[in-house]
Amino acid sequence: MKFGFLKTSLIVSIIAVTTAVGVTLVRRSGEDEAAGRRGGGETRAVPVEVAEISRGEMEQRRRFSGTLTPSAQLRVAPKISGRIASIEYDLSDPVARGAVVATLDDAEFTQALDSARADLRVAEAQASEAANRLELAERELARVRTLEERGVASAAALDNAQTEYLMRQSAHQVAEANLDTRRAAVSTAEIRLSYTQITATWSEGDESRVVAERYKDDGDTVAANTPLLSVVRLRPIRAIFFVPERDYGRFESGQTVEIRTDAFPGTIFPGRVSRVAPVFQEESRQARVEVLSENEDERLKPGMFIRAEVVFQTLEDAIAVPREALTRRGGETGLFVVDDSGESVVWTPVETGIESGGMVQILEPEIEGRVVTLGQQLLGDGSTIRIINGEGEES
Q1: What is the Cα–Cα distance from 47 to 372, expressed in whole angstroms?
Q2: What's the pLDDT at 393?
Q3: Which residues, 6+ apart, have CB-to-CB distance to 372 below 8 Å?
Q4: For 62-69+236-315, which CATH class?
Q5: Digit-coded pLDDT (tens) for 236-286
Q6: Does CATH number 2.40.110.10 belong to domain 30-53+326-387?
């Protein structure tokens, strides 16, 4: 353990000495250069790399990473439980709206319908019999009432005829109610039988979709509402990404978006913002943005990773410099601008604007020429420079 401690101390000492030497050399270099300027002696030129100050159109672009999802998804499931007799569609098959995609074994439901229809026929016969008996009771009541008015029939006979009529009237009402019940039972049995034909139905305007997933096979027994197939709409397709607070206010419905994916390098798929979430996710402090792309050729597929680029601002005549040219001196952000001789630099504080593609807009002051992009740490205002290219040779 003592040996390890001594080894660690030695390494720390070496690092400290090396750092001190480096700082001393940099300091001496600056002092020598300053002394040269004061005494009129020769100043050693600092090797730097430079870049041209550009002027022209500049776009403020932001890139976001996201995922493609179908613009609509339907999970086709039976409304009743049963054994799957057949599934007519498989992965990637096109499906027309309202098409029968699967069938359940219907033997039990067919038998239930036959039984309901038989019960209906019995109820119809009973209702017919009750109607006939009611008609006879009504005729008898009318006959007895006429005889009673003539003094032939007694009041007791009239009472009996009225009682019989009321009983037959009640029996007819019961028979009619039973008939309605049996008709409803037949309708229910027909509906349940129709449920064995499982259809893919949706309300949107598209007439055809495609099978994205198949969950079950022929012969499987499933419960009600168990998904059999996933049917999706690919035209248009939806891109989803999340944006931070600083960019949130710049998004609006209908905004143009360029979509790129590694599956088709160099291809830009146009899209438009369809929805911007009204809330931020608490975990990430970002908001969801949805973009729709027409995807007419269906090359874009759900699940693909995408990069979405949005142009927030376009400037017609912007002054721009590489981001590497910016540096800090005395609490200010500025540039070292190469003078007309190409042998020295001028420290110029600047106000920056938008940034795009590694370039930064310069708002103030208006500058031109070249700026230092590498070697600024050894420069001061008026420093002598030696311009080199990226390979260390003078340009």
Answers
A1: 10
A2: 52
A3: 48, 49, 50, 325, 335, 336, 338, 345, 379, 385
A4: mainly beta
A5: 999 999 999 999 999 999 999 999 999 999 999 999 999 999 999 999 999
A6: no
